[in-house]
Amino acid sequence: MAEILLDLPVNVPPTLVFQAFAAPVGLDAWWTLRSTGEPKLGGEYQLDFGPGYEWRARVTRCVPGREFELEFTRAMDDWVGTRVGVVLEAAPAGTQVRFHHRGWPEQSEHFRISSYCWAMYLRVMKRNLEFGEIVPHESRLSV
Predict the structure, then answer these.
(1) How far is Cα 106 from Cα 62, in angstroms, rounded to an integer?
(2) CB 124 within 8 A of CB 28
(3) Which of 1, 49, 78, 96 would disulfide-bridge 53, Cβ 3.0–4.6 Å?
(4) Other beta carbons less than 10 A from residue 17's beta carbon
(5) pTM score, whole prediction
């Protein structure tokens, strides 16, 4: 199994970073076009990225302010069963984010593209939290 692992500092408290990953309004600010869901173990999320990309996921880890993970139940074939999540650690300047996307069946072309996309999306999330920047959904991978 292949994994995408990324670490980044974010200069806001862990509670705000947790909301960016777990609250629909937080996800919509940097990743999804529209989303719904409740951050609780077993909770179901609807993740809308536009026509043809209405995905679903289930919460598999939820420790408020510290850990959050979603397992994809409906998505592109190689994303189904994969898990996206974070472990958040308090740091002197804010939060150390330890991001993962685990369970890829192989290091496919889509895996390689997703590795790049995650780095770009996490940059958008960081800039949103630290500076209030809002990037339209359709421009998030080109800023």
Answers:
(1) 27
(2) no
(3) 49
(4) 25
(5) 0.95
Q: What is the pLDDT of residues 4-21, one digit of tens each?
A: 999 999 999 999 999 999
CA distance 79 to 60: 15
Residue found under tokens 């960016």: 20
Rounded CA-CA distance 5/102 in Å is 8
* Residue 40 DSSP SS3: coil
**In the block, residue with structure tokens 């536009």:** 50
| 18 CB burial (10 A radius; 0-12, 13-18, 19+) | buried
Give pLDDT tens digits for 100-114.
999 999 999 999 999
Question: Could you tell me if 40 and 54 are in contact, meaning their C-beta atoms sit under 8 angstroms apart?
Answer: no
What amino acid occupies position 129? L
